[in-house]
Structure formats: C-alpha cells, structure tokens
Design brief:
This protein is an alpha/beta fold and 424 residues long. The protein folds into 2 domains: 214 residues, Glycogen Phosphorylase B (Rossmann fold); 162 residues, Rossmann fold (3-Layer(aba) Sandwich), CATH 3.40.50.2000. The chain has 15 helices and 16 strands. The strands form 3 sheets. The chain has an 8-stranded mixed sheet with strand order 3-4-2-1-7-8-9-10, with helices on both faces. It has a 6-stranded parallel sheet with strand order 13-12-11-14-15-16, sandwiched between helices. Strands 5-6 form a two-stranded antiparallel sheet. A hairpin with a 2-residue loop joins strand 3 and strand 4. It is globular and about 65 Å long.
Length: 424
C-alpha cells in the first residue's frame, strides 16, 4: 500500500508582490505543481477569481477591499478580509486539506489560523519577516524625540513587546519553520513549539555569471543593492559607504540600486554615483546581478536574504552585516565579507584592490550557491508536516516520502568558467 501525500492548504501573506514571502510562496506552489502534490493556495490579489484547478494544484485569489491600507508600496492589509470566509470555507470543504500552513500575522494568515482552529486541522506556520525589528526601526521618528538613554530603552521595549505578541500568535501552530538557526532557536524558546529550518533555494539557471553584459571598456566597479528601499534595510549606510570610499581615493565605482521604497528620494539625493532602474524581474534582474562586482547589503533585519543568494549564484560576492540571515549565507573571506557597518567601505576597497582574490570569491560564491535547492527546502517542509499529522507514518500506516530532488534542480550542471573580462 502506498501512502498519499498530505493535502496542504497554504495561506501566504503575499504572493504577487516583490518580497521574500511572495518569492518563497511562488516557488512552493511551483514545487507542488512539478511533483503533482495536492496543494491549495489561498491568497490576496488584485482580482477576484473562482477557484482554479491546475492539476493537483488549486488556487483561490481574493481581492482586498476599499478599507485596506498600505504597509508598503505594493503590500496592503485589509481589516475586512473576513468577508471572504464563506467562499474560503466552501473551497476548503471541497479540497479537504490535511493541514493548513500560514506565513505570518497578516489578514490572510489570521484567517488561515482561525479556520485551522475551527476545522480542527493541524496548523503549520513559517516565519519570514522580523516584524519586531521592523516595528522598532519604523518607530525611529518617535524615538528621536526622546533623550538618548530613554530612546534606546524605549526602542528595545517596542521590539520586545512586538516579539512577545508575534510569539503568542505563532504558538498556535503545532510546527514552525524559520530561515536561519538563531531564529529557529528563539522561536522554540518563546513559543514552546518545535521549529524546523526552512532556508531558501535559488534558480541557478536564471541567476548565472554568463548573463554579464558589460563591455570590455567599462572599467568602473559596480556596487549593487537589491531590495526594498526602506529604513529597516539600513540603506542610509550606502551614502556613508560612498563618502568613505571617496576618502580612500576610490573614484572608479558606481552604485546600482534595484528596487523601490520610501527611502528612494533620499538615496537619489545622497548617491550621485548611483543608477536607479527601479524594480527588475527575470532576465533583466539576472543581467543586473551579473554586471555587479559586489553586492552591498547592509540590512540587519532580513531573516534570510534571497537577494544575497541570487547574487552569489551570479558570481557576485556579498558584503553583509553580522546580524540576521544574510551572514548565514556568506562565508567570510571566501564568498564575501561579514563586517559591521563601520567596516563596509574598507572591506569593499580591500576586495576590489585585489583582482586575484576577487576572482576567487566570484568562483566560490557561485559554487556555494549551487548547493541551495528549492526542492530540498520543500522536501524538508513536507517531512516536518508528517510529525503533526495523525494519519501519516504511525503504526499500521505507510509513511509518505517527499519526492526526490528533480534533475532540473541538480546543481552540478551549472558550473561556469569566468571569461577573462570578468574584471573589466
């Protein structure tokens, strides 16, 4: 007797937007489709649509209403999303899930958690965003009004209270997932729930050094940043890096800032050496990465750092901080540098001043990225699901095994020899 795979109803915070949750969610749905797994994705979108069945994968996309308000340029929250409960309930009744998986305390996530409780289904939850750190940094406008000592203590209290509230929400799940080991350990401690590591994969065919399109006469070094241009990404440090590099006598460099956000106008004013192409996708994004000489990513709040992994796959070493998820991706002095804010400029200058070392880092970055497989990520997620499902893997019941890694996601076939013009 062969066991059937668990039927998963997935409620992501975002799906179409440009962020880590949406990026992971799209790959999760693709994984289920590739391996013919029963998977229902309930998500917010710009248009209402009836449930769409694409083989074993179902999707239900429901709009946010006029009461919704912006959290980011392309991310909103609808306090009246509960109005979709009857339709979602009907679809769940047809789909018959074995478990519900949410990605955070959005209106979609809260609805998913409530339905899991109502239907007495096991709940899984993955942590994607350090909401406690985001809230603390977005309170800076208020904290700056306070005396320095009081500002620091108040900021820490805001962060601690936000983490406590998030932990209460996540403790409603029976199994948790987080993208880096430190966060996993912290969630286990604050929620009392088991937490499994859920890193990220990368499309090593799309993000590839061969996408480099710079001509041999372009001898400027390109320092890249990809992501949301917001205060929690610490993007103001880029202006400081520019000033410090100029003080060190470097003039043959420019910034390439890919993304959008509230800090864009400030960056345009303070980064005269920068280009701002906006949001890039697909081949345009891959070419932008491949044209960089270094990725400069000063965020302290990212739980993983998808853009860092994409840069490494493109043969671009990364300069990151010792805080958050990116430092778990970069191998210091091998695939980039892990340094505090005040050492970014000197680290960048040192790498660029040594072409042989830079070349070694580029090769090592690509090789390291090739070990990151989306199939491996989601196979491990499905393995963890079975620890909370009463009818899978118990005595007398066959245990379903996640599908083997597909040939397409095998890393060995994507090795690449750099052209002599890699430093041009």
């Amino acid at each position: 007797m062969t066991a059937s795979p668990p039927r998963v109803a997935y409620f992501p915070d975002s799906f179409h937007e440009i962020n880590g949750v949406a990026h992971t969610s799209r790959h999760f749905e693709d994984f289920a489709r590739r391996h013919n797994l029963p998977f229902l994705c309930v998500r917010a979108g710009d248009r209402a649509q009836a449930v769409v069945e694409d083989g074993s994968v179902w999707s239900l996309e429901l709009p946010r209403g006029f009461l919704s308000f912006a959290l980011e340029k392309d991310l909103r929250f609808d306090p009246a999303y509960l109005r979709h409960m009857p339709l979602i309930g009907e679809v769940l009744d047809r789909f018959q899930p074995d478990l519900i998986h949410i990605t955070g305390p959005s209106e979609v996530g809260m609805l998913g958690a409530g339905l899991a409780h109502h239907l007495e289904l096991p709940l899984a939850a993955s942590w994607h965003t350090n909401v406690h750190e985001y809230l603390a940094r977005r309170s800076n406008w208020f904290l700056r009004l306070l005396p320095q000592r009081q500002s620091a203590s108040t900021g820490q209290k805001i962060e601690d209270l936000a983490m406590a509230a998030a932990s209460i929400f996540y403790s409603g799940a029976r199994v948790l997932f987080a993208p880096n080991p430190d966060l996993c350990a912290r969630l286990q401690l604050t929620t009392g729930r088991p937490c499994h590591l859920m890193p990220r994969g990368v499309d090593a065919e799309l993000f590839h050094p061969a996408k480099r399109r710079r001509g041999p006469h372009d001898r400027n070094k390109i320092l890249g940043f990809v992501g949301r241009l917001s205060v929690e990404k610490n993007v103001a440090l880029l202006a400081q890096v520019q000033q410090e590099l100029e003080k060190l006598g470097l003039t043959d460099f420019r910034f390439l800032i890919v993304g959008h956000g509230a800090e864009e106008n400030w960056l345009r004013q303070h980064l005269p050496r920068a280009q701002f192409p906006g949001i890039l996708r697909g081949e345009a994004l891959a070419e932008a990465y491949a044209g960089m000489d270094l990725l400069v990513f000063p965020s302290h709040t990212d739980t993983f750092g998808n853009v860092v992994l994409e840069a490494l796959a493109s043969g671009v070493p990364a300069i990151v901080t010792p805080s958050g998820g990116p430092c778990t991706i970069v191998r210091d002095r091998e695939t980039g540098r892990i340094v505090p804010d005040d050492e970014f400029a000197t680290a960048i200058a040192a790498v660029l001043a040594d072409p042989a070392r830079h070349d070694q880092m580029r090769h090592a970055a690509r090789a390291h990225a090739l070990t990151a497989s989306w199939d491996k990520v989601f196979r491990d997620v499905y393995s963890a699901y079975q620890t909370i499902l009463p009818n899978f893997g118990r005595e007398g019941q066959p245990c379903w095994q996640p599908p083997a890694q597909s040939q397409k996601s095998s890393s060995a076939q994507f090795a690449y020899n750099y052209p002599p013009s890699a430093h041009n």
